[in-house]
From TrEMBL, chains A, B, C, D:
Pathway stated in the Swiss-Prot or TrEMBL entry: Amino-acid biosynthesis; L-arginine biosynthesis; N(2)-acetyl-L-ornithine from L-glutamate: step 3/4
Protein's name according to its UniProt entry: N-acetyl-gamma-glutamyl-phosphate reductase
Span of domain Semialdehyde dehydrogenase NAD-binding: 8-146
Subcellular location: Cytoplasm
Keywords from the named record: Amino-acid biosynthesis, Arginine biosynthesis, Cytoplasm, NADP, Oxidoreductase
The encoding gene: argC
Function recorded in the entry: Catalyzes the NADPH-dependent reduction of N-acetyl-5-glutamyl phosphate to yield N-acetyl-L-glutamate 5-semialdehyde.
Native source organism of the sequence: Methylococcus capsulatus
Record PANTHER family: N-ACETYL-GAMMA-GLUTAMYL-PHOSPHATE REDUCTASE, CHLOROPLASTIC-RELATED, N-ACETYL-GAMMA-GLUTAMYL-PHOSPHATE REDUCTASE, CHLOROPLASTIC-RELATED-RELATED
Length: 348, 348, 348, 348
């Protein structure tokens, strides 16, 4: 276990929800010092003036996102809109700084597919193969030695953790997967847009992006790797009238008699500190993981049809973003994996 | 079109959410007089004392649900828990009173299946075949002459309207249907139960009854009739952190090239006053039908997979309960079908 | 009572919440035809494409807010940001069109005070004295013959209706009034601003503008007129984590023994169609007036201290904006005052 | 600072919201061992089966609340309805166990007043004078040596902390105080009651208990002690459509020129770890203290009127209940006062 002096941390884009969540987690992490927090729009302001929940915990001042402001960092987190990290990551890597990107810039392996879904050419396609997709439950060892970690998206985290044991063991028809997922509005970020207003999203529910969502290729890429075969996935995201939480309802058709699914999940995740398989018959609530880095999962095999239904919940800002990024940092820098991530879900 | 003196209406169980919603709608209906509103627990109290939104609109006083209090009614609505209507309906029918039951007592045709799902023997199985399942879009003519109308459940209304055009035309694999449905908490009724508290349901989301829900056999019964063949349906209900609204996300696999699905839906529902097929690419919001008797539907055929995804929204208390009951009453008593049901969805 | 052909209505700024609420109300009003709906940003789009709750009820297309588009209107509503109506009202008035302004442009009588609070010179100060402040409970007769009606603000409506009987009768110390008011977020309008996001306003509560709010001079002006003496008012607005509804909690100190306050309120409002004094001991819920044009009021005289506490609730978009505007239109054009405003509060 | 082996903790009534919040906090407190958690209704069940957020953190099983189950405890928390703690506290105290009561049983000094407000005779009036009212900001030293600590109510904590500096310094008219307070629904507890349902409390706002609330005498007792003179307090509680959070809006009239109020507050609370005076002009949000033990305060002196307005927010379950109880335990047992209470408010 690591000891000694704290590592120096930089955060690019500290004014969005994933950025401020990183600050909330890192402020109480015993092994880090927050050295730099950048924000192009709020440079010069104290972080705690914008985010009064951090008063007394974070005394940093937002700076401009210039590279020189990040020298001296051991690790830099990008909590930026897509398309930013790929501009700066190469320079930081050259300086020997570890990069953990919470945006989508390094999640896809195929630069053409990235360009298709994100509407621009990739700035450093040569790094895509090196980048390690930071889902610890799948590639913990690679994360331990990575220079560049692509932190998974929120939906992809919930869907992949929910389907992993089934696909690894080739128990279900990989070409007929359905993910009906629901997210709280904080997943859409801190953007001044009419559709995200309380008056628009409160007391209402809707699907969106049914015809195509950027998380679809990311999920498919991950599932293909788990399954070792092509995957057909129908993915329908929905917007919940609440702030934090993702609930994935996953449908899969067993190939043969699938055996004891409950036990399969329990064994697969037995040693995982942040994946919790609930007792048979449970229905996970998103509230039980609110503010925590945990994924709670329940599995059903329906009588008659045999259809398998998996329910997986996470907090989109924690296990779906900032918490998983800290988990990756812990792995990369030799901290206990759970350091700074012990918070219990805030119920009620 | 009917004219002349108003019909006399009785409501059994006026203190639940469907009962008070009936009162809200009937109070402004030009062709009815609210003669009797019963409530075992609140007999003697003025309706408007319990429900101040009705002050000045409803001057009825709750009475005991004795049959003599209902003599003189032309129609009696049951807005009671399951198992009540089947006790009293035969006597009322004998007196020539039309019965519209908003509970589940007369929805299933098979008395054994009813007993299985509702945990008791049916009190008048001989009426099950006579009862008309009150989904006007499917059996408008039968409703016009029915003595006993079984008003559909909220989930069944949304799911059946969503799948109707596909199944009637045998365009999809009837044995592989999936209904992932989400409901506001008012669907669970006005019951003093911990799981329905604001602190339990607010800011959280979960599935429930995945292993089996009473609306499953009701939906399957309806779908089988539409499809004219056996149906395999996976049905997963969820609880939304909001009050009113149901959103059904429906998944179906086309058998062959299904043709122009959008046009199919538009034509099927062209003359339906309360089913509104949205333009291609739309995503219906539950808020847009809040307080209205409308079902809004959008249809997607996904590129590549060909999977059909249907989105259908209703207000569970209106088109999913009291509004549909009034629609059935209108049909039965010769009113214009839309009388008293013109309210526009309350946005924002 | 008016009959004959419908009046022709124009709405300037139909894309905000008060504009779409006007459309919801006017679409079902039997005496009007919606002739023109303008929107600078959405000109050319069908109203119902932007607001799917209006599909089938409103077939208008947004046009540019040019004066020629408004010729032929009998009445024009301004549902615009402050500072717009005062630019165009003079031209419309010249053409003989009645103007009902839902913004603040004509609410204050003093042009200097208006300039102070709204940060710009008033464009037509000569109209300020002519404009009739459209609170029907105070000046119904003047409204009946007005050319230019200044529709009251949402907070001012609730506070003035709550204090009116006390001040008219000089029962309380006019220099020590306190209004602690709470509003749903729709009161802030449909603006793309971060502080109005669901993630910012959901599950949280705060005061705002404690040092000074634009509704303060409007309320004071009204209270002074009622009291016939100078008024001292402390006004603290708060933002509720919900969409519709205002709750005013009003504190006043009786001068002498105030007599039977409950009866005073009941008598003052006995003939008012939209003010409803609740029975003694009641606590009005904002939900009971949601979607309706009603103000519900309860009055308490506290034991011991004698302090008077008044609770008043309205729907900020109806009695606090669009509903009151329609009420004013009804008065002005000789309709029954309640025409098109009969909707019952949407509970639950 | 204390070190050595953990203290043994018992919790009576672990199934309510304050009980489960105590568990959430104590599970991560490095100096305690949760020895016993009682629940009459859930005895025999694992705590984490009822509260899945605690899985992996709390392995206790609910037991019956028999005294023998509590032997061996160093401290026992009562998280019970009013009227329970006073039955058992004497026996526990005799055994040398420290008692921290989160209910109201020991908050009032006058047994007759207690009986008046709580509707029963007090079971051990002789303990009322000994009990220490556990507001650390007022009587930290007494808490350090107390046997019996009466943990303050949620409203009383917010109101007293908000008014303390003004009253201690006799700057305002003590006979004209107004507290307009708003609480999330979790303050009403985990009780199966219709008025607490999501459908009743969501998207709505109301005052309640205007004629008299049990927290009124508790607050007055505290204010009298601060002011050293009689106090006149008008107290109006309201119910917010959200789960956690209290916002107190406090009105006080200065006697003379009050001086620099902002500085007064900053100095009074400079060394308080859990009271945070915000910069001038701030408006505290309840969200910024959600899940944290902090009280955030802003102070305004209004231009013209001179009226002082104080805004104070807490999380009713933390600083308003379980967090303050842990703070008191820390003081009593020689832990650092902030141990286990470092969590940062959960924004967004």
């Amino acid at each position: 276990m690591r000891s000694g002096k704290p590592i120096e941390v930089g955060i690019i884009g500290g004014t969005g929800y994933t950025g401020v969540e990183l600050l909330r987690l890192l402020a109480l992490h015993p092994g880090v010092r927050i050295r730099t927090v950048t924000s192009r729009t709020d440079a010069g302001k104290a972080v705690a003036d914008l985010y009064p929940n951090l008063r007394g915990h974070v005394d940093a001042v937002f700076t401009d996102p210039e590279v020189e402001n990040l020298s001296g960092c051991d690790v830099v987190f990008f909590a930026t809109p897509n398309g930013i990290a790929m501009q700066s990551a190469p320079v930081l890597l050259e300086k020997g700084i570890v990069v953990i990107d919470l945006s989508a810039d390094f999640r896809l392996k195929d630069a053409d597919e990235w360009a298709h879904w994100y509407g621009q050419a990739h700035a450093c396609p040569e790094l895509l193969s090196e980048a390690v997709y930071g889902l610890p439950e799948v590639r913990r060892d690679a994360i331990r030695s990575a220079r560049l970690i692509a932190n998974p998206g929120c939906y992809p985290t919930a869907v992949q953790l929910g389907l992993l044991p089934l696909l690894e063991n080739r128990l279900v028809a990989a070409d007929r997967l359905i993910a009906d997922v629901k997210s709280g509005v904080s997943g859409a970020g801190r953007k001044a847009e009419v559709p995200l207003l309380m008056s628009e999203t409160g007391e209402s529910f809707k699907a969106y992006a049914v015809a195509g969502h950027r998380h679809w290729p990311e999920i498919v890429q991950g599932l293909v790797e788990m399954a070792g075969e092509p995957v057909g996935l129908t993915f329908v995201p929905h917007l919940l009238p609440m702030i934090r939480g993702i609930h994935a309802t996953l449908y899969a058709v067993p190939i043969d008699e699938p055996g004891d699914i409950q036990r399969l999940y329990e064994e697969r995740y037995r040693d995982e500190p942040f994946v919790d398989v609930l007792p048979p018959g449970s229905h996970p609530d998103t509230r039980n993981v609110r503010g925590s880095n945990r994924c709670q999962i329940a599995v059903f095999e329906l009588r008659g049809s045999g259809q398998i239904v998996v329910l997986a919940v996470i907090d989109n800002l924690v296990k779906g973003a900032a918490g998983q990024a800290v988990q990756n940092m812990n792995l990369r820098f030799g901290f206990e994996e759970t350091t700074g991530l012990q918070a219990i879900g805030l119920y009620p």
